[in-house]
Amino acid sequence: MTVVEKLIERNNELRNLLTVENKEYYEQILIYIRTKSFFHDDLDIEKVLLEILQDILEAQKNSEKAVDYFGDNPQKMLDNILSQLPKISFKKRIGLIGIVFAISSGFSLFSTLTSTQPSINFLSLFFNGMISFIFVELIFHLINQQTFKPYKNKKREYFFAFCISFIFIGLTFLSNHFGGIWLSLSVPPYTGLTITWLAILILTIWVISKRKKDYYHIIFSLAILNLIPTLLKIPYFNSLVDSTIHKIIFIVFVLLLIYGSQFYYLKKEQKK
């Protein structure tokens, strides 16, 4: 377990000692800081969050509420704290952007390789990566801006979030549609599936070796999604889902497996 993971675990433990009101207030602080510290070092951020939590616990011992201790609008104080923290190096910033880019491009590649006519669309991979990074930045900004606002004042932000999501889906669709026209490489069906299964295997080995239990449900979902086109390549199975009703049952079953695993993971996280 890394130092950052230990700090997060300690934070989770201490947070349970807060009163309901103080916990709600602190979690707003937590969201505000984490959504505004994309280019800050994780260790510095977790140390700050733990210090703030300890301050609130100390105030709580003295029968003082967190809102009285830090005020109704702690944004200015939090911004001041963040401004004093050093930002990560340019190299690490590129690395973070690369991670978002790689995840988005990876899902796009996974989708095209498991389609009925598998291919590698290089332009789509590039555009989807860029679109995803901008989308993540905008969503983080919106979440950050509406953190301390009353619910009735958040409607505009929710509308903007909906619009951004709609635009994101539209741009991704256009990228996938037009990106396949140029710089597209066709891949034999079984080669595409072999690549995706190999990628899942490598990811599984990495997750197990690093003991990243939080990623188990992701691997499970990817395996299920990859299993569908694999099974459809088998003539016998293909005949089983030939009718419309069988296809619907199969799709519902797959969705239940995927969303069921996600729900189980979220419920498990809530109990921590």
TrEMBL record:
<feature type="transmembrane region" description="Helical">
    <location>
        <begin position="120"/>
        <end position="143"/>
    </location>
</feature>
<feature type="transmembrane region" description="Helical">
    <location>
        <begin position="158"/>
        <end position="178"/>
    </location>
</feature>
<feature type="transmembrane region" description="Helical">
    <location>
        <begin position="190"/>
        <end position="208"/>
    </location>
</feature>
<keyword id="KW-0472">Membrane</keyword>
<keyword id="KW-1133">Transmembrane helix</keyword>
<keyword id="KW-0812">Transmembrane</keyword>
<feature type="transmembrane region" description="Helical">
    <location>
        <begin position="94"/>
        <end position="114"/>
    </location>
</feature>
<feature type="transmembrane region" description="Helical">
    <location>
        <begin position="215"/>
        <end position="236"/>
    </location>
</feature>
<protein>
    <recommendedName>
        <fullName>DUF1129 domain-containing protein</fullName>
    </recommendedName>
</protein>
<feature type="transmembrane region" description="Helical">
    <location>
        <begin position="248"/>
        <end position="266"/>
    </location>
</feature>
